[in-house]
C-alpha cells in the first residue's frame, strides 16, 4: 500500500482561478501547472474564506472560518491559542515548514499574557501560525513617508544586498521597479510602469529565489515526514516582472473585461464605494488593463516555469511517489472585471481560487487528470492534509472537510453551500467621507450554494444576490428584487444556521461528549433520587455505611 | 472623590432569584442579603448566559457569551487563550483572588501545546480561569463505583479530616449526610434525607468554613487593590444542612409550585424529556418538595447569616467605604416549578438570578435601596468591575456592558434582549433511548426581550415561546401558534444578528481599527495609482530617484 510521506503545499498570491491554461484561459500558457493537473484532480469550484491575504491565509492555516478565528483582515492578529495546521500535524508526528509568505500578524499582547517568549520554539510557532520557519518572506517591503508597512526583517531584501544590489530597499528599487526613459526609477507601485522589465537579473527576482529556498529544503535529509508550505509572493502586485517575462504577453493577449454597464446603474452602496475607489477606477481603463495584465501574465508564466523546476526535481529524485502536491492561491484579482481592481468582494474573479491536488497513492489513479466540481472551501485543505498523514481530522476544531474521497473517486455526502466573509472595517472606505461605519457593521458574508450567491451586508444595507445559472457573469444583482425574497430568505437560513454553529467548542471532541452521557451517576453525582431503592446496588453501597461518630 | 479600592464578588450556587426576602419571598427571611440591598441596587431582571454551573461561570469570568468561549457545559474545558476577568483587572493593577468554587475544567491539551506548566504563576492562572487561588473548593466530592466525580484535591475535605472527622470522604459522610433511625448514614444525595440535620458541627460545615477563609483573606494586608471572588458552594445540592438550620423552616413555609396541567398536555419534545427525567419526576411530588425546600431554605438562611458576618466585619473595620460588594448566583433551581427539578432550561426559576450591587461611591448615594429592572446579563459584571477600577472595559473582548450608569442613577441606551444558551449534548437525555442526537444539534438558545421569551432549539425542533406579559408564570408555550409566527421571526432576527457578531475579533480594538483606515498608503502601499502625479509629493519622492545600477 502506497503511503504519503510528505506534502508540498504550494500557494501563490492573488492568482486568479482562470489564469491557468488547464482552466481554459485562451491565451495564458501554464504548461507546468497543467502537468500537475494531469496527475491530480483540479477542483473547479474552490472558494476562499475571505478574499484578502491575511484573513484567507489564517483560514487555510487553521482550517477554520474567519468568524471562528477572528483574524478578519490584514494585520488583525491571530489570537494566541488558536490551533493551527502545524499543531494538528505535529500530533501525527509530521513537521510543518514555512518557506515564504503567511501575512501572519502576531498577537503580541496574548503571547505576553501567557508568558510565551518569541524566541522559544513554541513562541516562534505561535508567532508564525504554527509553522517552523525555513524562511519567512512576506514580500511587502513597502516604504512611505511614515516608514515601512512591514517592520519585520526581510530575508530577501538582505539577500539582494548581499548580491550587490544597492540601496536600503532593493526589493523596491530593483525587484519591483524598472527604469524610465530618463534613467530614473520607474516604480512598480505605479501601474503605468507595469510594461517595464524589472531592474533585476531574472534569477534574482522573488519567485526564483523562493524556488531555490525550496530546493534547498527538499535536498536536505529529514528525519520526520513533513509538510512544506511553499508560499510564493507573486503574481500579487506590484505588477512588474523581469525580462524576458515582461514582454512574453502583450495587449493582444488580454481577454476582454467581464463588466457591464448595468452594474453601474444602481449598485449596492458597498459595491459602489469599492467600484469607485482608486483601484476600481484605474482598472476600469483599458490602457491600464493593457499595461498591467501582460505583466500579471508574465509573473504567472515565471511562477509556472519555477513550478516546473520543482516537479522536475521531484521526478528525478523519485519523490513523486511519496509526496502529495497541492497548488492553490489565497484569493484572486479583479483586473478590471466588474469595474473593480484588487480583490475584497465576492465575484468569482476575487473569491474563487485555483486548486489542484496530486495524491500519489494508487487509490487516486482513477482520478488523475480529472476535474471535480464539488463546492470546496480553503479550510478543506487542513483536514485533507491531516487525513493524508493517517490521522482522523479533529472535527470539533477543524471546520473544513477532508477532500480525500474526491481524490479517490468517491462521491461523499457534501455541504450545501460555501461561506466567505469580508471585514472592511479597517479600510478608508468604511470611514468618514465614505460609508462612515462602526467596525462591527462593516462586514459582509457570502453564501453560495452552487447556483445562488447571496451577499449579506451588516449595517442595515440590503443584500446582493446573483443567479449564476441564468447570469454566470454575475452582472445582475437581484438583492432588491421582490421576486427573489424567498430565495434570499432560504440562503439567510443557511447563513444563520452556520453562524450559530458551536465553533468555539474546541476542547472536547464529539466522541468525548457522547462518552459523557449518563456517566456522572457512576461517579456519585445522584440527582433526583429520593430513596435508596432507586439506586444500583453498587452505588447504594458506596453512599451507605455506619458513621464512626455522631456530631449532631 | 471617593474611590473603589477593592471588590468583594460573592456568588452563591443555585440560589433562586426569588428566595430573598427583599425579592418578595413570603416566608424566606434573608436579613443580611436585604442589608446589602438597602445599601445598593437590586437588579430584578438579571439572567445567566447558561443555566448550568460550569458554562455560566465561564461567562461570568470571561465577560463573554458561551457561544464565544465554548465551555458550554460542566467539564467542557475553557480553552487556553481565552481572556479572563483576572487578565483585564491585572492590566489595571488589580489582583483577582479566588475563594471557593469555579467549576473550571482545565484545557490540559492546550496548556501542553503552549508549554504552560500548571505549577507556574501563569499556568496556574490559566488553569483557574484567571484567578490567583486563595483556596479553591468546588465542593463536588461525589464518589461512586467508578471513582470520584472530581479528582482534584479538596481542601475542605482535608480540613475536615484534620478536625477529626473520620473516613476518607467526610464531605459526604458528615458535611452532606445525616444519620438515620438505625444509626446509619442518611446520605444527602437521597432527597428523603433532606429533613435530617447534617452529621457535622454547624461551624464546620461548608458555608462557615468558606466565610472564615474570606475573613482570613480580608484580614491580611494587601499591597495592591483586589477583587475577591468569594464563591460559595451552597445552597446547591446535596440538600442537607446542619442544625439548627435544618428545622428553621418546615412544610408550612413551602410556597406552592408554579406548575400547571397545561404544561404536560403537549410539551415541546426537549422540555418533555427534561420534565420526565428523574429530577423532574421527583420534584413533581409534594412530599419531595416538602422535604427538600425547607432544607434549601435552611441552607440559604445559613448563607445569609454568614454574609452578615462579612458585612459586620467590613463595617467594623471601616472598609465599606472602599469596597464594592456584589451578591449573585450562577443560576437558579426549579424546585418542582414547571414539573422540573434542577436547572438547565429557561423558565425564570432556572435562568434568572439574584443580583445586588453595592457601590460605595458618593455617585451611588441616590440609588441606594432601589431596584433596577433593566435587562441585565451575567457578563455585565466583568466590565462593571473593570470600570469600577478606573479602566475602560475592552469592548472588543468583553461582550457584557458596564452597569455603572444604573448604579449612578442614569438611564443609558441599553440592549434590546438578553441571550442565554444550553448545550445538553453531554446529557443522557440527548443519547440513545431518549432524543438520540448528534452533539452539534443538542443545543438551545434563549432570547428574552423583556416580554417575549423565545427558545430556539437546534436539531429541527419547533421553538418555544412565552408571552411573559399575558402569562407571567410561563405556562403557555406559543411556539406552535400560527398567530405568533411573526413574533418568533422577529426574535429570531435578534438571535441571528447576535450569532453573526464578530465575537472572535478580540486582538484589535475598535479604536485601533478606525485608526488603520487609509493609513497603508502612508507606509508605501500604493494601490490603483497609475502615474506619479496621483501621489502626494512626499510619497512620490519616497519611491523615486535614480538607481545606481541598471541590471536589465
The CATH architecture of the largest domain in chain A comes to 3-Layer(aba) Sandwich
- Return the structural class of chain A: alpha/beta
What is the radius of gyration of chain A computed over CA atoms, rounded to a whole number of angstroms? 26 Å
CATH superfamily of the largest domain in chain A: Alkaline Phosphatase, subunit A
Q: Tally the helices of chain A: what do you get?
A: 19
Distance between the amino and carboxyl termini of chain A: 72 Å
What oligomeric assembly is this protein in? homodimer
For the biggest β-sheet of chain A, the strand order reads 5-4-10-1-11-13-2-14
Describe this structure in words.
Chains A, B: GO terms for molecular function: metal ion binding; sulfuric ester hydrolase activity; transferase activity. Chains A, B: InterPro entries: Alkaline_phosphatase_core_sf (IPR017850), Sulfatase_N (IPR000917). Chains A, B: It comes from Tabrizicola oligotrophica. The structure is a homodimer of 552-residue chains. Chain A is an alpha/beta fold. The first copy, chain A, has 2 domains: 494 residues, 3-Layer(aba) Sandwich (Alkaline Phosphatase, subunit A), CATH 3.40.720; 35 residues, no CATH class. In chain A, helix 1 crosses helix 13. The longest helix of chain A is centred in the middle third of the chain and has 31 residues. The radius of gyration of chain A is 26 Å and the shape is globular. The model of chain A has no long low-confidence stretch (mean pLDDT 97). The interface between A and B is large, with 133 and 133 residues.
Amino acid at each position: 500500500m502506497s503511503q504519503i510521506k510528505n506534502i508540498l503545499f504550494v500557494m501563490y498570491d492573488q492568482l486568479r482561478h482562470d489564469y491557468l491554461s488547464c482552466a481554459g484561459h485562451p491565451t495564458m500558457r501554464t504548461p507546468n501547472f497543467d502537468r500537475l493537473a494531469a496527475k491530480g484532480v483540479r477542483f473547479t469550484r474552490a472558494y476562499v474564506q475571505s478574499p484578502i491575504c491575511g484573513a484567507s491565509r489564517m483560514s487555510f492555516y487553521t482550517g477554520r472560518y474567519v468568524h471562528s478565528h477572528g483574524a478578519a483582515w490584514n494585520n488583525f492578529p491571530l489570537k494566541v491559542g488558536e490551533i493551527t495546521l502545524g499543531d494538528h500535524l505535529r500530533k501525527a508526528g509530521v513537521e510543518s515548514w514555512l518557506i515564504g509568505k503567511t501575512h501572519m500578524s502576531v498577537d503580541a499582547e496574548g503571547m505576553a499574557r501567557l508568558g510565551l517568549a518569541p524566541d522559544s520554539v513554541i513562541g516562534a510557532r505561535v508567532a508564525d501560525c504554527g509553522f517552523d520557519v525555513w524562511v519567512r518572506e512576506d514580500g511587502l517591503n513597502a516604504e512611505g513617508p511614515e516608514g515601512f508597512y512591514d517592520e519585520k526583517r526581510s530575508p530577501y531584501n538582505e539577500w539582494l544586498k548581499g548580491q550587490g544590489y544597492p540601496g536600503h530597499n532593493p526589493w523596491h528599487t530593483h525587484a519591483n521597479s524598472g527604469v524610465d526613459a530618463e534613467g530614473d526609477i520607474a516604480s512598480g507601485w505605479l501601474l503605468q510602469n507595469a510594461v517595464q522589465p524589472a531592474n533585476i537579473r531574472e534569477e534574482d527576482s522573488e519567485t526564483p529565489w523562493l524556488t531555490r529556498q525550496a530546493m534547498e529544503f527538499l535536498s536536505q535529509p529529514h528525519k520526520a515526514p513533513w509538510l512544506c508550505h511553499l508560499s510564493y509572493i507573486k503574481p500579487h502586485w506590484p505588477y512588474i516582472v523581469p525580462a524576458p517575462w515582461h514582454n512574453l504577453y502583450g495587449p493582444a493577449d488580454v481577454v476582454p473585461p467581464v463588466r457591464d454597464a448595468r452594474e453601474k446603474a444602481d449598485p449596492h452602496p458597498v459595491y459602489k464605494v469599492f467600484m469607485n475607489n482608486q483601484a476600481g477606477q484605474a482598472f476600469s481603463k483599458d490602457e491600464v488593463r493593457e499595461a498591467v495584465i501582460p505583466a500579471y501574465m508574465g509573473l504567472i508564466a515565471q511562477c509556472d516555469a519555477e513550478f516546473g523546476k520543482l516537479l522536475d526535481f521531484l521526478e528525478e529524485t523519485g519523490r513523486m511517489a511519496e509526496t502529495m502536491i497541492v497548488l492553490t492561491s489565497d484569493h484572486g484579482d479583479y483586473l478590471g472585471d466588474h469595474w473593480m481592481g484588487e480583490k475584497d468582494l465576492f465575484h468569482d474573479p476575487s473569491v474563487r481560487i485555483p486548486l489542484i491536488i496530486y495524491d500519489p497513492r494508487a487509490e487516486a489513479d482513477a482520478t488523475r487528470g480529472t476535474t471535480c466540481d464539488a463546492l470546496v472551501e480553503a479550510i478543506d485543505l487542513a483536514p485533507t492534509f491531516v487525513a493524508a498523514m493517517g490521522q482522523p481530522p479533529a472535527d470539533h476544531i477543524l471546520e473544513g472537510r477532508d477532500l480525500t474521497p474526491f481524490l479517490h473517486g468517491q462521491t461523499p455526502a457534501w455541504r450545501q453551500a460555501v461561506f466567505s466573509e469580508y471585514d472592511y472595517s479597517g479600510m478608508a472606505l468604511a470611514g468618514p467621507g465614505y460609508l462612515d461605519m462602526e467596525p462591527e457593521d462593516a462586514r459582509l458574508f457570502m453564501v453560495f450554494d452552487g447556483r445562488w450567491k447571496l451577499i449579506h451586508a451588516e449595517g442595515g444595507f440590503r443584500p446582493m444576490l446573483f443567479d449564476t445559472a441564468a447570469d454566470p457573469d454575475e452582472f445582475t444583482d437581484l438583492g432588491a428584487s421582490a421576486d427573489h425574497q424567498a430565495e434570499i430568505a432560504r440562503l439567510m437560513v443557511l447563513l444563520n444556521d452556520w453562524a450559530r454553529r458551536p465553533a468555539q467548542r474546541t476542547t472536547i471532541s464529539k466522541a468525548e461528549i457522547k462518552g459523557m452521557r449518563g456517566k456522572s451517576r457512576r461517579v456519585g453525582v445522584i440527582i433526583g433520587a429520593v430513596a435508596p431503592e432507586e439506586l444500583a446496588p453498587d452505588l447504594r453501597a458506596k453512599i451507605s455505611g455506619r458513621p464512626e461518630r455522631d456530631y449532631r
